[in-house]
Amino acid sequence: MNITEKILARASEKSSVSPDDVVFAKVDKVMVHDVSGPGVLKVFDKLQKQGIDTSKLHDSTKVWIAEDHFVPTAEKVSAENIIKLSNFSKKYDIKKHFKYGMGQYGICHTLSHEEALVNPGEVYVGGDSHTNTTGALGAFACGLGHTDVAYVLLNGEIWFKVPETYYFKLNGKLPSHVMAKDYILKIIGDIGTDGGAYNTMQFGGTGIDEMSVESRLTLTNMTTEAGAKNGIIESDEKTVQYLTDRGATNATVLHGDEDAEFSKVFEYEASELEPTVAKPFSPDNTTVARELSSTELDKSYIGSCTGAKFEDLLAAAKILKGKTVKIRTEVLPASISIYKKAVKQGLIEIFLDAGATVGPPTCGACCGAHMGVLGKDEICVSTTNRNFPGRMGHVESQTYLASPQVAAASAVTGKLTDPRDLN
Amino acid sequence: MIGDVIKYEQDNIDTDVIIPGTYLKIHDYNELATHAMEGLDPDFPSKVKDGDFIVAGKNFGCGSSREHAPIALSTCGIKAVIAVSFARIFYRNSVDGAFLLPIEVDEETYKKISNSDKLEINIENNEIKNITKNETYAMKPFSEIIAQIISAGGLFKYKK
Asked: Superfamily for B2-157?
């Protein structure tokens, strides 16, 4: 069995599973945020009317809550959703509630690794499509809707069809100025937004051995944009060290079996990669950044679970150091812990000196919610994950998805810029 | 079930156009319905009737896990989406929450169905009858678990 099959077999108490088997998997961790939490409560209301008991969760110690999409509260209704979350954690005695304005908080998919909330080998579900991100730690991590999350909260398990696995063998170290974001954009451009649909996308090879845990998280994060059920990377010593440094006590190295099977294998050479951009209006509409050097921009957005981890900010800061931005540039660290580290290491000062504005952790404009949404005809280069029509605001705005280095270099020139071409 | 078709001749109709992100803070189903398909067809809420079907191409519902998407469509009266394929979370949300039927058909069938056609969907024998055109098409049968959840009326009513 490969790692996904091993995790699902363990969680469903079976000696083995194969693709297409339907299993009820015991869930180890479950996350809701300020969009899915109130959605789950709405499901609870409906269930109560049907006479289903919602007074107790299956295991509230497995649950954690993030406040990320509409915080700091964008308007009254968002504030009311945050109040609902507070009542929710109080009622069900959920201890891990990361409240904005009260110490560590941030984007749910960032907290999951920054706070070592998920361990290798676990089944982790969240009420958000980018839950796939956390699979980079060697967990089965999968996004679900409100009804399914409500079911997990009350029953501790959920059904899955065991996915087929596509294995992406990544060879060699990334060239200078090329980031994991370029890698995953290239892959999505090759396979399409339904290229991984219903399947697992597993990444391995020397390219993964070389890569930091944060870079690996960028790869699994955007498996969602290829339609995958989960993205996963076998845990190694780097994963264990990363999680242990953040307080994990039982993180382990976990691999698939020697004779693990994959339904397709794709192979990539890092040395052939270049800074890559997804043009409007789809993450698979990719080309190399140099092809777009005449594209004039209105804004550069460096934020989100995809592109505002510490190393993303570090990469952007290296480019912006001593430079001045030519277009509106917004930097929103993905969590308070990352924000603090960026302050301590001088990155925030670099951004401010360059003329960029720095915002609080939030999903913000990535999902068109608030804090930097785009107006009609505005064109943005963004380190986020989707660029469907209206994703970041007006349906006639345009988003080019890119790496933090491309977003930073483009901020300096006002046009889409390959960081290798910046003087 | 019998209904009229609202057809969108395109692939990859994503959740950002089915219900834009700015409305994710809303959990009132009726209010969500007033914004259904806003990113693609702002007239949709005024033209849709109870019992209608949406017909579209590949990968319908790609993008986010927002259950707001099938909720908005179903609250507008949409009983089924007929598409060449579906993104996984939209598909499972539609079934587990018992909002609407996600029905897969082949490319040829998708092309044959026109806007405003009257269809009769029969999931017992996996058949779609086009009453307007007097044609009959096959739909892809639901997998066993999906058929069981649909027949139970959603995941919470399904007994393993």
From this structure: Aconitase, domain 4 (3.20.19.10)
